[in-house]
């Protein structure tokens, strides 16, 4: 009964249009009251949920992503990658994917990555004959890989909820699958561009490679410093986020001089507001998870699901479909907080590696970020392009299938995710 009340009230709150944190809180408080628990458990668990050292990295990476987005790094990366790729039919589609991968190594956020690349590349792509729907769909798909390619805010939240999977292990495990997922997008991007002749009749002067490289070097060094410092043991993942912010401020204010003190203050305010929303959801979701675990709701549900799907592949298919659908409606952090208490017992019962499972979950959620009808990254790029999201449907389905193929490869061959963390001694 308590399980039905917990899940039922939460779903009812979402259908009613209540904010996610409110829905989680209402369902949790009602179930705890029904079970006779002291309501002091609510503030206690909210505090316990957010008073965790690794979570300090979240507001820092959010701020770092905003700083690099507005400092002009994205524009310089586009020029550099264009200089490498050249001008040919479909070349800008390739540039969009590669730049999104590079920015993903800085921001850790799919929507932020998609917004930065769309703001820089959409005008150029449209001017060269790429349809707005195609361009918005491709950039949304490529930008979503930012939550898989380290550093990733989603991986930090996952490690907090699943202590057996450390942040360095998850970062290492996500590198190759994230790159594979992004590179899979190049196949439909190039084939579609060549079929319809996108960019065929437009030839711009190719930027000089040497000058473009020098201009972009500060942006290219960012992921090297962050990931290299982590690997060398110079700083922890949380400290790496602070280093990323300091480096971004130096690049924006001293090197490029595109960020003024007034701009920086606005960035701090925006990052603070967004971080507050994320931390509020994390805190209330901790009460939701505590209520479900304490009352045995999630363990019972996990046991029932395992009995329904005794086979390895049947359970994998069910979990992946659940995550894909959830990713269409909610962001990755929220889904981790809501579903991990249910899915981790299933993963343990099936004998799955929790690091590999975290990467699999995150790729699913990345696909959900650009899968209609409620795709967050796709909504952002469509708004920047000035079109309705329905104009992207005919194009984006091919990108969903392409990244799905990359996900399938990682599921069938777990070593794609586990080889690097094992090589580095993290697992």
UniProtKB/TrEMBL annotation:
Keywords: Cell inner membrane, Cell membrane, Membrane, Transmembrane, Transmembrane helix, Transport. It is a multi-pass membrane protein. It comes from the Bacteria. The keyword Transmembrane applies. One of its GO terms (cellular component) is plasma membrane. Pfam families: DctM. GO terms for molecular function: transmembrane transporter activity. Residues 8-416 form the TRAP C4-dicarboxylate transport system permease DctM subunit domain. It is found in: Cell inner membrane. InterPro entries: DctM, TRAP_DctM. The chain crosses the membrane at residues 49-68, 80-106, 137-158, 170-192, 213-234, 240-259, 271-292, 312-342, 354-375, 395-420. NCBIfam families: dctM (TIGR00786). Belongs to the TRAP transporter large permease family. Part of the tripartite ATP-independent periplasmic (TRAP) transport system. The complex comprises the extracytoplasmic solute receptor protein and the two transmembrane proteins. This is TRAP transporter large permease protein. It comes from Azoarcus sp. (strain BH72).
